[in-house]
Amino acid sequence: MAADTPPDALLDAVEVTGWGRTAPTVARVARPRSYAEVAAAVLACGARGGIARGLGRAYGDAAQNAGGSVLDMTGLDRIHTVDATTGTVVCDAGVSLHRLMEVLLPLGWFVPVSPGTRYVTVGGAIGADIHGKNHHVSGSFSRHVRSLDLLTADGEVRTVAPGTDLFDATTGGMGLTGVILSATLQMHPVETALMSVDTERATDLDDLMARLTATDHRYRYSVAWIDLLARGGALGRSVLTRGEHAPYAVLPARTRRAPLAFRTGRLPSAPSLVPEGLLGRTTVGLFNELWYRKAPRLRTGQLQRISTFFHPLDGVPHWNRVYGRGGFVQYQFVVGHGQEETLRRVVRRIARRGCPSFLAVLKRFGEGDPGWLSFPMPGWTLALDIPTGMSGLDSFLDELDEDVAGAGGRVYLAKDSRLRPELLHAMYPKLPAFLALRAEVDPRGVFRSDLSRRLAL
Amino acid sequence: MKDAFGAPQSLLVLGGTSEIGLATARRLIARRTRTVLLAGRPSPALESAADSLRTLGAEVRTVPFDALDTAAHGEILGKLFTDGDIDMVLLAFGVLGDQAHDEADPPAAVQVAQTNYTGAVSALLICAQALQAQGHGSLVVLSSVAGERARRANFIYGSSKAGLDAFAQGLGDALYGTGVHVMVVRPGFVRTRMTAGLDEPPLTTTPHAVATAIELGLRRRSETVWVPGAMRAVMTALRHVPRPLFRRLPL
Description:
Chain B: It comes from Streptomyces purpureus. By secondary structure, chain A is of the alpha+beta class. Chain A has 15 helices and 19 strands.
């Protein structure tokens, strides 16, 4: 077939997928090393447009662009300036949160928001307007962005400040307003690189929600692992882990010598070939039972590394392979306060259905964020992984979507790989404003992704 | 775009009145398909097929297409891809012929071969190139178990499907890594208009079952799909039966 196509079309064509390893498509991947090279790559995008890509942690097709260009931004990885007294950092969009931690923890500054992996880029964090365990206190990532430089479709670089329409469209805008080149971030001060963690068990979903509602405000970070296979009286049994950055005073003498040392553990990679269905109902059920039993009923003040508390999965490189060749879907939705019944119903349905999910987390969100397509809203968010091989999963998730949308909730675009496009408007009421602004700053549709094609964004 | 489960949003059926093609379209419309292009010889049957899919909520267009008129394929099919992405192409046309009659009427036999093989080669190559340019898409080819080993009773049809099957497999390998997924579907005896009046052998299946298997194959990104699944074992055994015995089998 190669002979039938123009030679340059296939030279650097690469198959690209998201972290969930579903729906692979082929794109020309460019890896610009400077702003000028980014601008050149954007101008060189053909009829099928281009999209920026960071470390590929979006689960679905947000950073894929079939037949077009994908701009691998990880080559733009410079931290320009660090103000160690105010905690302000200016860095390129391709810098990872891991790198920021390496550089800034020793200076006593931590990233303002950290998701479940530190292998995401700053550009991706803004584009998906990510949230972390501190959302109820700190909001989403872009709340801590003081300004950003955006390369728009016309080849101009615009410095965009919070409070402007372009800023609110770009944060959470999934890269469709332009390519973020650099950003100024406000970091969070810490005394040590350790976390002081309280762990407790919740016997069921109502117990969990009651505990989160009553005491979440006491903690900067809070999340609950939830056993979605437990049914009946144990429905929604969970392990809450909530914590703070440990103050220097609580460290044992040995650790005080290097309180800000950033240490991470690393296990062997997941093998590249894992039999499909290894993680079925039985194995995951067993895991969940053990995980729940092993958690202490109540333990306070345990010191944990940042990597253990925030990024347990980062210890296993390529952990996304454990679901086998068919990949997996990550389903994350949020419903507002007052919609607890919807949450209960969804959890009950997932449990009854027996979705083999061992990475399910529930979190209570704080105030919503200004981004027009930002995911968080005040309420409850549940995220779970499900292997695509599970029979009937596609229509099951469609039913959950209806329920979530009916309750005024939404699913997270950075994780989506399967939403029915018709529901997008119901879930994201500011979508018309987003589309209008996009039509204005990118009239020819230079910035496009598989996600934008699938959802008509 | 296809979603994580391989469900396409737009579908082109080559052989727009094919019962398997329409059963597949119905199934996919129930999932994510919103746009369907039915390509076939203009006829009331084609229009009523389009109407039946419209009632399911899809936007349907008919396209005049004749498998035998390979000279026109490039223009007709090429144009379809300029209107927007086509996530899946289903090659569903084919004729069974009448073995007993066609053996004595070579031009009729040639027509079977040209429809099932030559016409398909032309259409597949054109679609493959367009899908490759868009960087994604599934090319689903309806082959047949009859192509697995030619039988005395229908070797004209069988050989044309054997050629098509081999071609599609090679095409799938050529397109590996281009984002285009080629899936060869090998149904056994399917109860349709095409086979009406023939004796039904064991493992007879239905267009609906083939459609279900295609949907599952899309999700798994399968390269070969047998319908019913047991056909795979049966044909593997038959393939190894010695000639003297095979020719005496009542197949």
